Amino acid sequence: MAHLAWAAALTAALPLAGTAQTSTIAPRAATKLPAPLVYLRDVDATIAQDIKYATTDNFTGARVDGYEAGECILTRQAAEALKDVQADLRREKLSLKVFDCYRPKRAVRAFLRWTRRPMDEGALTKRFHPRIARDSLVSLGYIAAVSGHSRADTVDLTLVSIASPPVVGTSTYTGCAAAPDRPEPDTSIDMGTGFDCLDAKSYTGSRAVTPEQRNWRNILRRAMQARGFRNYPREWWHFSYRATTGAAYDFPIAHRAGQALDR
Predict the structure, then answer these.
(1) Is 115 exposed, middle or buried (0-12, 13-18, 19+ CB in 10 A)?
(2) Which of 64, 116, 117, 128 could lock 59 by a disulfide, CB 3.0 to 4.6 Å apart?
(3) CA–CA distance, 182 with 257 (Å, rounded to integer)
């Protein structure tokens, strides 16, 4: 993969991904997915998964409606393309880590309800949208009433290094638009902001991040584009697989067959 060849030297200095907080819930029994959807683990189990909305580690502060299991579900075409991206990256000692894939329509509605709740200025505000009021997130385009994630052809992800030992994160969160090199206690490669930083600093081409951080964003973008994904320019982590007219789904995300129910 020619456009990634120069990344190897930078990669060795950066750490492995961490794992977000998880919460034990009582999931429903695994059900068969509607065609053409698949569990990503059944296509490529080497891709790390940290499904944020199945935990409390997200901008709402709670597990989101519809996320009964921390599993990535995609159309088979999108999953197979992501497998190809992973194979390309692993030759450069890199790996993907996904934060969100299929998103039930009920989860999208839950986000909209969250924006209408009484305002607070707590830790979550400081961490995820320190410069934008919660009730402005929809009008400014950071939270949408309709999501491509509900078609299961869209994925939020980042890069991690498989060449360096893991680094233990801290429990201290600063604002996602803050100046420190690593504003999130996440051991993924430093992209300049964490996932779901609702701020202009998250724009893929933002000049508010360092040249090295911007280079890593470009490595991710080019790797994904090479396999048919397109980036949403206001979120460096957000990619959709080609243009589709697929239906939007609303079934809850359940555990895979044979999966331990307390993971």
Answers:
(1) middle
(2) 128
(3) 37
Going along the chain, which residue ranges are E strands? 37-39, 48-49, 73-75, 94-100, 154-161, 229-231, 238-241
Q: 3-state DSSP call for residue 238? A: strand
Q: One of 71, 92, 184, 235 is an active-site residue; which one?
A: 235
Residue 78 burial (CB < 10 Å; 0-12/13-18/19+)? buried
**Residue 212 is a catalytic residue:** no
Q: What is the pLDDT of residues 38-69, one digit of tens each?
A: 999 999 999 999 999 999 999 999 999 999 99
pLDDT by residue (tens digit) across 5-21? 444 434 433 444 344 44
**Looking at the domain assignment, is residue 148 inside a domain?**
yes
Residue 242 identity (one-letter amino acid): R
Q: Is residue 182 part of a domain?
A: yes
Q: What would the two tokens of residue 58 be?
A: 């997200």
> Considering its fold, how many domains does the chain have in total?
1
Q: 3-class SS at 240?
A: strand
- Per the domain annotation, does 82 fall within a domain? yes
User: Does 87 reside within a domain?
Assistant: yes
